[in-house]
Amino acid sequence: MKILYITTSTEMGGAEKVLERLALQTAVNHCVQIISLRPIGEIGAILQQKGIEVKSLNLKKVSWPGKIIKNLQHSINAFQPDLIHAFLYWGIESARLACMGKNFPLICTPHFDFSKRKFYQKILDFLLKDKDQLTIAESVSTANYLIKTLKYNKNKVYLLPNQVASSAFYPDKQLRKQMRRAHHYHENDLVIMQVSRLEPIKNPLVLLKAFRNLVRNCPQARLVYVGEGSERTKIENFIQECKLENFVKLVGMQENINAWLNMADIFVLPSLEESLPLALLEAMRVGLPCIVSHAGDMPLWVSHGENGFVFNPQDITILSCFLTELCLQPDIRRTQGEKSLKKMHSQQDTFPQYQQLYNKIQNGEFSRENTKC
Q: What CATH number does the domain located at 2-162+350-370 have?
């Protein structure tokens, strides 16, 4: 089978990481090609190094798909895929337009919240959404939003939640010691970690402001940001203003996220918007107590007071209190971490189901009985 993946970008992000793992698994038995609208990013480079063909239309900024449809159609006709799988907003809308009048089966995986999109973008999606043979929702919140708010055909929406493999993310005491030694943390330091892009939607400054309150009562607390983005300068300025240089590190993009999470004691993701972030599932696989915002499916995975806490993403005071409780009460921190790990034990890898869907669509076997929405 020849499978073409079309995506807005191959930069480092949750949707791109899903695409990376899916493409690598699919390429074992099939011919795979990836087309990115934007220049090839970190994920694209990793895939190229591993032998996956990744092409770019080299758009610096995607504002309207009309300019790229012809190039995309040319690439599709040259590859002649048996199936097209599109990711992210512009990747999806461009694929829908490029496939008009063609017989290529099209699967779309949104990975985004339409509610914050511009009006014309919502209209464009409304007009094109029925071009999909199947829309895969990676979270319950996304599935509900697509069906109830955007009026997607519920018979064409398939719920396939994000998941991470236990072979890639797991608690490792020896790795924890190695990482702490390498990055000059003592065993009694309490490391709080956010793994995400440093973008406004991920709300990293709220965590930093809550952390400033925390260190007054818990001087052994440390904060680590793993990721890169436009908010970095603001974070650095705030660190300098509050004299937190000895307490906060920005380590940029990192490949071995399992190692970094093992170094941590507490995971925090204060996002304004989410679907079901891989970073949260990865932290739970490592066995960390998690503090998350009321966004997307995160409250479904973090039971308040059980394996972490859930808060309003703008409430710095409450976040400070939750951080303080976990830092000052090791028994609660340990118990919540154990419950995170236990909650993930029952979760199975969902990626093989993509292969099953691909086969059913190619063979014309997909039916309503197979759906989960």
A: 3.40.50.2000
